[in-house]
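Hey, I'm writing a tutorial for new members on how sequence and structure tokens pair up, and I'd like a real worked example in the thread rather than a made-up one. If someone can provide the structure for the chain below, I'll link this post from the tutorial.
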Amino acid sequence: MNEGSVPYDAWVAFCDIFSRVYDGRRANLSLREEYGSVVPIAEGLTFSGIGADLKDSENAVTIILSDDAGQHMTHIVSEVRELFYQSDDLLVPRLIINSAHDGTVLLQIDAA
């Protein structure tokens, strides 16, 4: 996967590939507030998938995480303006989701 902004017309395919590549890995989900502080939404859960809904200009991204007991958590980010993928030298991938409504949501997948 190439690092950088994901083109709008590739969001659905990108989310599908991202889901297959990182399914089952530990993940953290957080929200970066306006003034830079980061608020955890979920930590150390298992990544189950991500999907993009572009029909009717909804531009929503759905993230599914689960715990060890199999309980699922679904987080929907609405009015997404940009998906940005990045990875560091340790190959820890991070997806930055910029939303007009929800702020900036960070999905970080733990290294294998």
